[in-house]
Amino acid sequence: MKRLALVLAVLGAGIAASPFVASSLAAAGGTSTAATKIGVIDMERVLYETPAGKRASEKFEKTRNSKQGELDKQQKQLQKDAADLDKQAGILKPEVLKQKRDELEKKFVELQQLYVKLERDLAGERTNLIQDLLKQANPIIVEIAKQESVDLIVDQSAVLFADKQLDLTEKLAARMK
């Protein structure tokens, strides 16, 4: 996700710099090109509204639910163990009680580590999902750019404002199967 944000930021900087580059070329006596035509695509919409995006999202949700189920199971077991220990606290020797509490704390720390690992795994899965969708969309985006005579297409998330006429999302969504 961070890599995608970085790419989008670089593209945004390129868009911002393009008028300066063209004016610098003209001032230096170079040839000036016509205005750059820009298009915008909302990849988040493509992810959630196209058949390809929906399939990818469903796959991600299954993975997320599976990992969440694993985490919930261990959390419930830890809660059960803690409740059992609380019930036995009055009859256990202090050193045995301390040992069992230490074991519970260790299990709690392990559960926290598992949670962090699962979150990291899910972030990686989401990044892969978006990259796969972009790979699938890229040839279509190139075709749309040629058909529309667009020189540059950026993701909506990198744009602060764009006229609705620049939005090519529907054209991409219609072709993503």
Quick summary of this structure?
With 177 residues, the protein is mainly alpha-helical.
List the helices and strands and how they pair.
Elements: H1 2-27, E1 38-41, H2 43-49, H3 51-88, H4 94-148, E2 152-155, H5 169-175
Parallel strand pairs: 1-2
Keywords:
mainly alpha; rod-shaped; 75% helix; 177 residues; two-stranded parallel ribbon; disordered N terminus
What does this structure look like?
The radius of gyration is 26 Å and the shape is rod-shaped. Helix 3 (51-88) runs antiparallel to helix 4. The protein starts with a helix and ends with a helix. The chain is mainly alpha-helical. It has helices spanning 2-27, 43-49, 51-88, 94-148, 169-175; strands at 38-41, 152-155. The protein has one domain (2-175). A two-stranded parallel sheet has the order 1-2. Helix content is 75%, strand content 5%. The model is unreliable at 1-32 (pLDDT under 50). The longest helix is centred in the last third of the chain and has 55 residues, at 94-148.
